[in-house]
Amino acid sequence: MSWGLSWGQPLGFTPGTVHVGDSPGEDARSAVAIIGGMRTPRIKIAPELGEAVYHCFTRTVNGEFLFEDTDKEILRKQMWQVADFCGIRIITHDILSNHFHVKILVPKKADISDAEMLRRYQVLYPRPTPYQPARREVIEKWLVTGSPEGRAWRARMLALMGDVSAFMQLLKQRFSIWFNKNHKRYGTLWSQRFTSILVERPIPAMAVYIDLNCVRADLVTDPKDYRFCGYGEAVAGNERARAGLCLLFGETDWSNVQANYRQMLFATGAGFRSKGAKISQADFQRVIAEGGRLPLADVLRCKVKYFTQGAVLGSRAFVETQLVAYRQRTGRQLRMAPYPVPPIADWGELMTLHAVR
């Protein structure tokens, strides 16, 4: 089995398929009929307006446990490649046998030089492949001469950069091609659209939830020993993984962040049990209804739905602003409103937008 990273798909989306609400430059007021209803445009912050933080999650078809360590390694490397190409920063991630989580920061849109465009292009295509539309030398000549081909190429590349949907679609399609080819299979690999939660700020508790997935799955007892999560990569020396976790605390000194984050992981992870008695969902809801507060460890062990289904997570003002922008962009008047997150942990006052999908 080849571990080369040249496998991928053409830089673009599946021909003949419209990605309403997902692809850059979308006509959000149109809709695509899908089995079971209409596709809902995704809630996002336009990159022209400012940076945005998202927690993204996707699962394999039927939730099948398909990924071995070799597959996780390729997905891990492709994740970093596609993030670099798209100009997106990975805060943390966790890849398991049937799904993966990734928390990302999409920066505010900025001008990208021709040199940077070519560098990013070569990140995805370090050597010629059957999927490479043109060689670097040809593209460079187009750009230098200002030819129509060069302008069209820039437009195509820019459409795939600085957007959460483009990042996730490119990653999922690229990995699907590699996986199907190397496992002699065909057909869809992923069960559905990816889930994304727009987050007001890089909440450390959410990153802890992601990095502890490997502990909940009983794969390791210490996330530093799991190669396929952001914290494990950071401890192993990956500078980009360290920089991502530093974003959580607004610091640049990894040694300080490492100490603080590790304490958070273990204070939380101490409450996880892969076997034995657990707090039931019924008891969890009862305690919340009674106004009780739970340790963060118990909150995360019960898999708080707001981390995967809330659509938007942040202060009331942030959630209301995104709801107004969504309605203006789509023309839809859905029955949505800010919904208070129960005071189950010391996160400050948080609101969520009830799941719209």
Which structural traits does this protein have?
disordered N terminus; 11% strand; two-stranded antiparallel sheet; 357 residues; alpha+beta; seven-stranded mixed beta sheet
List the helices and strands and how they pair.
Elements: E1 33-34, E2 37-38, E3 52-59, H1 69-86, E4 89-95, E5 99-106, H2 114-124, H3 136-145, H4 148-158, H5 164-183, E6 195-199, H6 204-211, H7 213-216, H8 230-236, H9 239-249, H10 254-269, H11 281-289, H12 296-301, H13 306-309, E7 312-314, H14 316-330, E8 338-340, E9 351-353
Parallel strand pairs: 6-7
Antiparallel strand pairs: 1-2, 3-5, 3-6, 4-5, 7-9, 8-9
Helix pairs in contact: 1-2, 1-5, 2-3, 3-4, 6-10, 8-9, 9-10
> Which percent range fits the helix content?
40-55%
Instruction: Give the overall pLDDT as a whole number.
Output: 78
* Multimeric state: single chain
> Which of globular, elongated, flat, extended, rod-shaped describes the shape?
globular
Runs in which pLDDT lies below 50 for 5 or more consecutive residues are 1-37
Biggest sheet record: 7 strands, mixed
Number of helices in the DSSP assignment: 14
Cα gyration radius (Å): 21 Å
- Tell me the span between the first and last alpha carbons: 38 Å
Structural class: alpha+beta
- The tally of domains stands at 1
DSSP E strands, number: 9
Biggest sheet strand order reads: 4-5-3-6-7-9-8
H-E string: EEEHEEHHHHEHHHHHHHHEHEE
- How much of the sequence lies in strands comes to 5-15%
